[in-house]
Queue: 2 jobs
Job 1
Amino acid sequence: MCTVSWSFTSDGEFALCFNRDEQHTRVDGLPPRIWPAGFLAPVDPTAGGTWLAVRPDGGILALLNLYREKNVRISGGGSRGTLIPELAGAEQLPTLAALKKIVPRPMNSFRLLSLARDGKGMLFTWDGNVFSHRRMDKKVGMLTSSSWSTAAVISLRSAAFRKFRNDHVEPRLEDLGKFHQSLHARGGGWSICMTRDDARTVSLNTVRLAGCEVEMTHRHRARGGAGFSAVTQSLQLPLTAG
């Protein structure tokens, strides 16, 4: 579960939004902070990891769970969220070789999006047994996941994003933010801002990178709430030259 979208604009600004979807029983995530290794990221207090990070060089890492019919849930596997802190504190954005070294066995399946400041990106996929990767150099893109009706939900949300792109050729952060708060006519787990009996979209994080600084914001969504909290917690990180 989760949805991430991003946009590199022609005037050099980068924008990203991330909806974190979790079980109702999961402890709420904490707003972004600057970690000891120097990157900016929210915190999963349960496992001590994170789902999203911005490195001092402007590189972005975003983690989504991967669900497929053939995937088998691994009981007692390592927390996927602990991968990002290790990778975000490294000297450079991750390579496939670096990921293979740090992913413990067993670990449940995931997709890791890596975006450089210049717009070049990679998508790494771990299916629980084998790694794969591909270039992800889209100036505007979206990835989503769902543990419920996986294929149908991804297809519907992807269609919604294509329609959104028709109306926003070069979306700004505000545009992406509205998309991430959208509710589909079919409601429930179909929506980008989703709600199910067992889970919901619990938070929205945004990232805006312009010039020599990046800002990350965090908005919580309470159980039973129609939308995200009006309180926006934000933090800035100066970027290194590059």
Job 2
Amino acid sequence: MNHSHPSAARRPLSPFLRRTPELDTLSFSRPVQVGRVIADLFAARGLARREASLDLERAWNAVISEPLRRRTRVGVLRRGVLAVLVDHPILLEELAAYRKPQLLEALRRELPGAVLRDLRFRLGAIEPQPPPPTSPPPGCSS
């Protein structure tokens, strides 16, 4: 006996979730751990990839000096190889030939759960990053 309203299949699950094929395949016939449901939703929405990308960026920024940070951008990690965009051929050569082992080791320490086998440096234009937002000093009102 189906007690659901006829329009229930057309209503969104929540204001934040759209009905997708991934969500339609979820089975609610047996109990499921909440952590598993959240992980599946993250995967369906690509949120895990975005979080991993932010982790890579944070780790890169932690292991590279400020001047080099402005001239490089961390890319994607595929099959254990992290792509790094570099804005100048001489800097690319320096990173690839002389600093790669130290950078790789430092990144492995920053990302202990990641499989990081190699770094691949690639020449390309670097868009300037916007400055971090500043907050007014305590006691000042705007």
